[in-house]
């Protein structure tokens, strides 16, 4: 299993329910090929840097998933056939989510003892 990240730019004419259907469609495709979804982020409607097919905005969605190496080619083939996807990009690897742990109290059993100050040998 490899980690992948796909960003989709969906046609702004598609409503919120249509975006959800697109996410469900590609999530189901990933799961049907023994993949697992790590994270789905809807970045929302954003203005694009340059117009694509006379569209200045798009709805951005990021899918992070783990899958066998054969899945990205199949996913890209399906996305290319979908007319509501303006652009997409799949890269290998993604940044794992960072979870900030609560600080340990000094008396807890998992607390790391403070190191003794080093003395210099002169």
Topology:
Layout: E1 2-10, H1 16-32, E2 36-52, E3 55-67, H2 71-81, E4 85-92
Antiparallel strand pairs: 1-3, 1-4, 2-3
Description:
The protein has two helices and four strands. The chain is of the alpha+beta class. Strands 2-3-1-4 form a four-stranded antiparallel β-sheet, with helices on one face. A hairpin with a 2-residue loop joins strand 2 (36-52) and strand 3 (55-67). The radius of gyration is 22 Å and the shape is globular. The mean pLDDT is 85.
Which features characterize this protein?
alpha+beta, 4-stranded antiparallel sheet, 122 residues, globular, single chain
Strand order, sheet with most strands: 2-3-1-4
The dominant shape is globular
Number of helices: 2
The residue fraction in helices comes out at 10-25%
Largest sheet geometry:
4 strands, antiparallel
Q: How much β-strand is present in the residues?
A: 35-45%
Mean pLDDT across all amino acids: 85
Low-confidence stretches: none
In whole angstroms, how far apart are the ends?
Answer: 55 Å
The helix-strand sequence is EHEEHE
Structure summary, number of beta strands:
4
Q: How large is the radius of gyration?
A: 22 Å
Derived structural class: alpha+beta
